[in-house]
Amino acid sequence: MKSTHSSFRFLACSTALSVFLYGCGGGSSDKDTSPNPDQGNRVPTVTINGDNSAQEASVVTLNATASDSDGSISKYAWSITSGENVTLNNSDQASVDLTLPDVNGDTQITISVTVTDNDGATARDEHTLTIVDNADNQAPTVVINGVAEVDEQSEFNLTATASDNDGEIVSYFWQLISGEGVTLSDTDKAQVKVTTSDIDEDQQVTIAVMVTDDGGAVAMTQHQLLVKASAQTQVFTLKGRVNNGANSTVNLTVGDQVFTATTNDSGEFSLPVELDESYNSQLAKLSASSNSVFYPEFNFVSQLLTLGELKQRAGSDNILTDDEYFAVSVGNISTTLYYMLDDKESNTTTEQLEKNYGRVYTEVLTMRAGVLHMLLNGNQGEAYPLPTGVTTLEQLFENDELIREFEQRMSDTYPESMAHGQVLRSETIAYPAINETKQLVFSPQLPFMSDGRHFTLNPDGTGSTVLENGSSSELTWLIDELGNLTLEYTSPITLVHSEILIHEVQLVTTEFYAFFQRGNTIEGVVAERFRIVDKDGNVVDDNYGSLRHGGFTEKRNATKLSEADFLGTWLIGDVFTPENAILSEPAVANLMADGSASIEVPITGFYTNNAKWQIADGNLEITSGSGDNETRFTYYILNKNEIGYAFVADVTSGGQQFARNGIMLKQQTATGFSENDIVGHFKEVTGYRLYGHENLVIYDDLIAREDIDEDDRVARIDEDGVLRLETYLDKDTSTRCRSSDNGRCYLSQQTSYRLFAKDTNQYVVLRTIALYTINGDPGYGFSNITRIEKQDGINITQFDYGMLHSLRVREHLPNGQENDYDFSESYVSDGENEPRYSLSVSYANGEYEDTPFYLDNGIAYFTLAGKSMQMSLEQFERDTLTVCLHEAGGTCTDADKKQLDMRWNAAEMPPVQ
């Protein structure tokens, strides 16, 4: 009877356990070395050591002894040259574990290893191993008995109960497979003594035993053990400041615990905290009441990090101050951020908070913070009235349409003397202290409008920077009393040079206003001062600047990650810039386990599988081509699923070119869309909360419509699982077609959705919009990351602004003439107010009318020909929209209901009978 067992790695060399010998002999080999890629580099050497034979259904370890006389070994790659059903474990290490199969008769296999030195030269060796058929000997069995959970600093025993039907057990071998804080004694006996040490946090460990019978057959099993760390009390003091919060009560909430303090006349507070470590992973929320003259009822809230992270930031003095963590101050910007989060009270973990942060953009956050600043401080001594029915910040900030109208109303009367920089200063929070050398990347949110930055900042206030255009400079930095990070360049950095204008733009200083932290990134606004100089170096203009939203991201230590963390598909944002194009295009990179890679640019059709990747000097390098045609992309590692700033070296021209942004999003699934995924109704979640949500509707016959008033598009899924929405136009009339219609119509536009991640009914996708010419040639397009949320039904019961935006309604009159109603976002003056939305009416008699409209509880109100009118949504079906249009204040009758044809962009109102 044959038996297959689970396997693990053993680290001893023992003649009694011949199948687990390390370096205890050598097999036949076939050495090979690669041609020397560099005449100054010597090739390495490698030899495989290990047994020449082993029992079936066992685990064998082989060692590669490699050396390089003029460098070091950077890579190991093991493979099976001949043989089947052999599993390699740790195939990128110096030692490899082989899990051998059951065989019918003695069987030979060949294993090879290739080593690569630090200059790219390689060497190869082969080893032959005979798998011995043990058909006449039945394998033993073994189980481990013992506890599954223990405390730290304890001692106990685990027992291996083994048996052999046709013989006896001759040896035992115990080993710790994974985990820390555990030592084993008496590892060659049936009972092993386990000792746990003092640990900082709970440890999950795996302990294994292998038994061998008198015929050489083995059996193995594993035991999972949870080692519990003793709870330790966290004691530290939280110090901060509440803007507009003198003599205010401050509450710190951590799980079910609340700590309270009172601010002084300056709004400063000191709050002692004492909790055991069981609260470490809980988010800490700081709140305080306002002392604003205008709105004292407002409640300030700051969503902080976890308790454990706060304690760590407090340092050895156990006092957490503004300069140690930027969000400790409960101010306007943290309050604004809190009210922009979804499901605020249910955010209890860092993961939930990070998911929320992914939908917050600092540009929108700044606008919301400006609203709060104006509310708290008033308009030149007078309060801004809140919209009717709004009494709390939550009501205001959760209604996008209300707050947009509120922003517009206040921006018209905001004091012109208040500079934007001053507003930012009043809203920002302190940048964290820099106590060790930091590698930072600034990536602008709109990369095509500005250069990115890569900074090195030292704790002594010095540093350096490199821009994406290759310019660099030394610098000095400081964090001022307001918590702003200011960088001053030793030599101004050239940004733009024009031979026509014979002027160049030079960067002089950078000031960063921190808003909030998203993973390793601190989001905020960069304010930079520039100067213009002529070709002789004379300063033409020394007094202008710019503001941009983006994030400072700290580079991660790559040694904490393994190469396995980088396998898979990545979206490389904003890398390729076509000739004469403004926007850069993203690429898709596939990183394989053997070090190879492929790169694809969806719009341009560029594709290559002639690429390699590696981790070098803490960076991810992707190399395309070779020799004079080599292009290398270097990405600074930010965290496991996000890679930072991209540096591109063009070897052909000998120059250097920087990608604009280079943020990479790792794909979480290798599968694309299926028909079951996409048939139905979707809500499309755009990246900017300011513009709200749109609807993507895909029917069973795969006809799609984006939002309810857009053109029909043909929907299909290609062989790679990419969802494509296609628009066809008649070559002669440019009218819409449902398909190519035997060549009469051509593909005009294609919107592709490439799936990157799936979370229940929500999909993270790369959306690519590509335009085509009448000849079928691809035109330039663009791509971005968005989300599509699947819904069971379309669930539209009333109007919202996104639904009415760009909706055109056509009314057919009994005499055959038509009135057109066009809802849009243009601005229409009406006395002192500036309504954001308008209705433009083109009457059949040639007259034209513009009138503002507004929504209240899903009903649109406007004035037509001097009459106050209202329009409500009665029903939405696949191709029809039923509305009720009548005078305001009246009730809807059947005669007021109008059915609108939604198939071809214009909603058609049938003639009145």
UniProtKB/TrEMBL annotation:
Polar residues bias (residue ranges): 34-49
Record flagged with keyword Signal: yes
Highest taxon of source: Bacteria
Domain PKD/Chitinase: 43-134, 141-230
Signal peptide residue numbers: 1-21
UniProt KW keywords: Signal
Transmembrane annotation, as ranges: none
Name recorded for this polypeptide: PKD/Chitinase domain-containing protein
Annotated region described as Disordered, given as residue ranges: 28-49
UniProt organism field: Pseudoalteromonas spongiae
Keyword Signal belongs to the record: yes
